[in-house]
Write a structure and sequence with these properties.
95 residues, 93% helix
Length: 95
């Protein structure tokens, strides 16, 4: 009986350690998920800033140069894309 009781106690100890370890892993996993969301948001913000800078750069180039019809159409297309992207970002922020 003593060995059976020792085995049971040993198993109980191991189960308690496993449960504690599992709780720690769950907590760590949750923190990592939160970190991922923060990094995703930072990435979105950086991409948005980059798009704005690209748009400003394109507008600056357009104001300083004489563009061909093809370049003007390409510039208009880029500007429309940037405006759509800004509208999308604004709608995301207003939620």
């Amino acid at each position: 009986m003593d060995t059976a009781e020792q085995h049971i106690k040993a198993l109980q100890q191991k189960m308690l350690l496993l449960a504690k370890h599992q709780r720690q892993l769950v907590k760590e996993n949750q923190q990592l998920k939160e970190d991922v969301e923060v990094y995703k948001e930072q990435t979105r913000a950086i991409k948005q800033e980059m798009n704005i800078i690209e748009m400003q750069n394109a507008m600056l180039k357009a104001s300083q140069q004489h563009l061909t019809d093809k370049e003007k159409k390409e510039m208009e297309k880029k500007l429309q894309h940037f405006i759509a992207e800004i509208d999308r970002c604004i709608s995301m922020l207003s939620r």
